[in-house]
Amino acid sequence: MMTLRLMRFGAKNKPSYRIVVVDSKKPRETKTKDYIGSYNPLKEPPDISIDMEKAKFWLDKGAKPSPTVKSLIEKFSKSSKLS
Fold first, then answer.
1. Rounded distance, CA 12 to CA 8, Å?
2. Staple 39 to which of 14, 17, 61, 67, CB 3.0 to 4.6 Å?
3. Where do the domains of the chain lie?
4. Residue 30 pLDDT greater than 60, yes or no
């Protein structure tokens, strides 16, 4: 099964994340199927960018988002509607 989840990048104590599509049984730092966005929690407000077309494509194919990615998608969709 495919899942949408975060992949950590960045230096020690300075995390940034990519939102990726990966097989759910694979470890966090593995080859991904697709890259759909990024998340930087250190900025104020946190920087979230998601390609919603790709996210919808993978969700329609049956990929399950992790709880964190699910909340990031909801926050991003609310903020993009306000703009």
1. 11
2. 17
3. 2-82
4. yes
CATH for the 2-82 domain, from 3.30.1320.10, 3.40.50.720, 3.30.390.10, 3.40.50.300: 3.30.1320.10
Radius of gyration of the chain (CA): 13
Question: Tokens 């994340």 identify what position?
Answer: 17
Which pLDDT band, with edges at 50, 70 and 90, does 77 fall under? confident
pLDDT in tens, 31-65: 889 999 999 999 988 999 999 999 999 999 999 99
Residues in CB range of 28: below 8 A, 6 or more apart: 5, 7, 8
- Per DSSP, helices labelled H in 1-83 are 52-60, 67-82
Q: Is 15 exposed, middle or buried (0-12, 13-18, 19+ CB in 10 A)?
A: middle
Amino acid of residue 39: Y
